[in-house]
Amino acid sequence: MAMGMAGSSRRGGGRRSRRAPMAEINVTPLVDVMLVLLIIFMVTAPLLTAAVPLELPDSRAKALAEEADQVTVSILADGRIFLDSDEVWPGTLADRLAGIPRDMAGKPPLVTLRADKSLRYGRVMAVMGELNRAGFNAISLVTNSSVSAP
Fold first, then answer.
1. What is the CATH number of the domain that holds 66?
2. Model-level pTM?
C-alpha cells in the first residue's frame, strides 16, 4: 500500500521530508451508511402509504400496482373522510376533489378508496357517488388480502 512516501528525498540540510497527500478514499464507511439508509427506507416505505389507520375488509383479490399520482380517499369507522392524510370536513369533499390537478390530457388520477369494514354500504356508496360526480371514474377499492374466502 502506498502511504504517501513519495516525498522522502531530502532537499537541504536539516529539513524534514514532506509527505505527499494521500489520494485514496476509503469508501467502506460510505457504503455501510448507504446500506443502512436503504434498509431504513425499505422498511418505512410501506408504512407511509397507509397514513390513516383503519380496519380494511378481507378479500382474495390480486394486488394492483401502485401509480405515482394516485389519490387515496379513506373513510374511518366513525364516518370521517380523509383525502390522502388530510381530514375533509363534511360537505367539502366535492370542493377538495375539484382542486386535484389533472394530467396533460385532462384525465384525473386514479383514486384508491379505503373504507373501514364496519361501515354501512350506503356510506361508502355516497362517497363513491361524490367521486363519480367530480369526474373520478377510475376507483380502486383497497382490501386486506386473505387466503380463504370471506
1. 3.30.420.270
2. 0.56
- Number of domains the chain is built from: 1
Under 8 Å between Cβ of 136 and 111: yes
| pLDDT tens, residue by residue, 85-117 | 888 887 788 788 888 777 777 777 788 888 888
Residue 41 lies in a domain: no
DSSP H or E segment with residue 42: helix 28-49
Distances (CA, A) of 123 to 76, 80, 115, 139, 140: 11, 10, 9, 16, 16
Q: Which residue in this structure is represented by grid cell 373501514?
A: 116
Higher pLDDT, 57 or 102: 102
Residue range(s) defining the domain that contains residue 134: 58-145
Asked whether residue 118 is domain-assigned, the answer is yes
